[in-house]
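hiii, so i know i said id send this last week but things got crazy w the move. better late than never?? heres the sequnce for the chain we talked about at the cafe, plus the structure i predicted for it. fair warning i was half asleep when i ran it
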Amino acid sequence: MLRLIPKKEKFFEMLQKASQNLSLTATEFKKLLENYSELDQSVKKLKDLEHEGDIITHEIMDKLNRTFVTPIDREDIHALTSGIDDVLDLIDETAGLMKLYYIQKPTPALFKQTEILIKAVEELEKAINSLKDLKNSRRLLDYCIEVNRLENEGDELLGTTIGDLFKQNSDPLEIIKLKEVYEHLEQALDKCEDIAIIIESVVVKYA
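okay and structure toks below
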């Protein structure tokens, strides 16, 4: 018999695939900082992961356009997919800026920012993996609350980091370059919080 309604679980699986690729990308960015002498190779790896993310995004959007019944609102699936893609782009762009601006070495602040970002991405992955089980809303909300806490931690770190940058560096060009890199990575963390807010809204609607 012809299946008129495709298996709805496929969307959850595709979102999981997207979040797994995002986790891998965040981890790869940390490796870039740890092995900075191999910057060119690391930038290429991140570009490949970003490209893989684009493929997953297109697959989800195409399926969304061809599917009548979805497990959660289609605008939520669209927003989650776009949000994950935005974080991927920002991580990839940060790596590209470090290469473009000839950043000599990663700073301690960059390592701290990256650790916070990785934790946020891991919490998002847990949340997205749990979307199939919306009855367990408390667990889902806990993941989202932790992302919000990490984003606040990242904001505080950025404020301190920018302040220190102006205090400790007399080279205006170096200040401009590092400030943009820091802010790019913070934008990635901001986008993680946006994704968490979308997940919270899904919980409110369906749990």
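btw Residues 1-6 have pLDDT under 50 and may be disordered. thought thatd interest u
miss u guys!!
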